[in-house]
From TrEMBL, chain A:
PANTHER family: AMINO ACID IMPORT ATP-BINDING PROTEIN, GLUTAMATE_ASPARTATE IMPORT ATP-BINDING PROTEIN GLTL
Record key words, sorted: Amino-acid transport, ATP-binding, Cell membrane, Membrane, Nucleotide-binding, Transport
The protein's name: ATP-binding cassette domain-containing protein
Compartments, as annotated in UniProt: Cell membrane
Pfam families per record: ABC_tran
GO CC term, one of those recorded: plasma membrane
Length: 250, 219
């Protein structure tokens, strides 16, 4: 579903991703862990063109989404194509990024409404179902500022799902939340995983990674150092850097 | 008290003042928004053009711009094309005030748009919305609330600045009372003008306060 081939990314002189190779298959829940600054967010953001890769290839749904060499396009991809590929990916941000001038329901409806131009009633019923799924049907007419962080993040998940993405990207979805609100967001993510959604989750929630992750990836200094099933990585890490990172956080 | 002729003169002057203000505000908002979008666009040419526009028209006096449009344009076009283009006074005033207002508002709009969290643009993009869709449905609506106070300010400046049209042979509110004062040697006519200006600026202040409250609903 997603493939990264020899992906490099630099911000000026700072090389943030170094030869990343990763393939994610349908139904996988890939958890990405690693110290701050190791390039986890950048890797996710390169998938939906929030950042452009410096070199390498990105495939989404077996279609080439980006191919570049030294900050130049090898393959010119039209803006429309990029937009269409972005709708295959739903993204949930650390800081929610809800639209504050729209109500909860409008937040969930806006993208299908203006990108897909579907019928209004249909969009609304899908949006209401999604809000129900994240347990916020009763908050549909509130503005985001009236909600707790956990509720806002659940709305953000519903908003991303409204575009019917095939893959969901989560960038530390619970790290901006008070500890008592983390659980409700993780619950929704577990539900999604059980429904078979393909997910890439950058997280510090090792419990979540162990429970629902099908694969764990450890990144450090822009490289994928080690990957494997959660049990092996957590109980039996091979690389020294993985060991010392896990020792620090567990 | 005022004679009927004086009242007509004040009324006409007020009408001119209001006409120019309304025209320049509406046209200035539209043009200013286009220039602001040019200023923040990634397109280098649009960027340079809008930067140049703001640089010139915000950096020179409005009175000079009025003179250029009204007096210098005919001379210039005569030299260039062999026949002069002479704009009627009112058209020249509309044009100069619009150009000038747009330059100020462009900067107000640019700052307002750029004050919106970058995460909003990213969220729109991640949802598959185009740059324009995100701009018009997400970013600009959020910036409006922040734009209301400076826009009210600009409108008040504008209504007062319209008195500059006296310099291109037009009779606005201030010039008509000035003429009465000169003709009669009495200065109380200026009070009428002051009252009328205050009347309008009070309405503007009140209306913009209301609008600001309305837009604060989601915070
Ligand atoms: N837009 C940018 N411009 C310049 N440098 C950036 C930019 N975005 C990220 N970086 C740098 O790239 C490196 C990797 O950042 P990234 O956000 O991908 O790390 P991360 O693994 O997600 O860290 P964290 O756990 O703190 O979120 C960091 O050194 C960061 O400072
Ligand atoms: Mg990060």
């Amino acid at each position: 579903m997603i493939k990264l081939e020899h992906v490099y990314k630099s911000f000026g002189k700072l090389e943030v991703l170094k030869d990343i190779n990763l393939e994610v298959k349908q139904g996988e829940v890939v958890c990405v862990i690693g110290p701050s600054g190791s390039g986890k967010s950048t890797m996710l953001r390169c998938l939906n063109h929030l950042e452009r890769i410096t070199s390498g290839k990105v495939y989404i749904e077996n279609e080439i989404a980006d191919e570049r060499l030294n900050d130049k396009d090898v393959l010119k991809i039209s803006q429309e194509k990029v937009q269409q590929l972005c709708t295959e990916l739903g993204m949930v941000f650390q800081r929610f990024n809800l639209f504050p001038h729209l109500t909860v329901l409008e937040n969930v409806m806006i993208a299908p409404k203006i990108v897909r131009k579907q019928n209004q009633e249909e969009i609304k019923s899908i949006a209401l179902d999604l809000l129900d799924m994240v347990g916020l049907a009763d908050k549909k007419d509130e503005y985001p500022s009236r909600l707790s962080g956990g509720q806002q993040q659940r709305v953000a998940i519903a908003r991303a799902l409204a575009m019917r993405p095939k893959i969901m990207l989560f960038d530390e979805p619970t790290s901006a939340l008070d500890p008592e609100l983390v659980g409700e967001v993780l619950e929704v993510m577990k539900k999604l995983a059980h429904e078979g959604m393909t997910m890439i989750v950058v997280t510090h929630e090792m419990g979540f990674a162990k429970e629902v992750g099908t694969r764990v990836i450890f990144m450090d200094e822009g490289r994928i150092i080690e990957e494997g099933n959660p049990k092996d990585i957590f109980d039996n890490p091979k690389e020294d850097r993985t060991k010392s990172f896990l020792k620090k956080i567990l | 008290m005022l004679t009927e002729a004086q009242m007509m003169s004040i009324l006409n002057g007020t009408l001119l003042t209001v006409k120019i203000t309304i025209f320049a505000m509406i046209a200035g908002v539209l043009l200013g928004m286009i220039i602001a979008l040019g200023r923040i666009s990634k397109n280098k040419i649009l960027n340079a053009i809008s930067w140049f526009y703001v640089w010139v028209f915000r950096g020179t006096p409005l009175l000079l711009q009025l003179f250029v449009v009204y007096y210098a344009l005919p001379l210039l076009t005569l030299d260039l094309f062999g026949s002069p283009i002479k704009l009627p006074g009112l058209t020249a005033a509309y044009l100069a005030f619009t150009i000038n207002t747009a330059a100020y508002l462009a900067e107000v709009f640019r700052a307002g748009i750029q004050s919106i969290d970058k995460g909003q643009l990213e969220a729109g993009k991640a949802l598959g919305m185009s740059y324009n869709q995100t701009m018009f449905k997400i970013i600009i609506p959020q910036s409006i609330r922040r734009l209301i106070p400076p826009m009210g300010n600009e409108l008040i400046m504008l209504i007062k600045d319209t008195s500059l049209v006296a310099s291109i042979a037009m009779f606005d509110l201030l010039r008509s009372v000035n003429q009465m004062a000169n003709a009669t040697g009495k200065t109380h006519y200026f009070l009428y003008a002051a009252g009328i200006y205050l009347f309008f600026t009070t309405i503007i202040q009140y209306a913009f306060g209301k609008i600001e409250k309305k837009y604060a609903a989601y915070e």
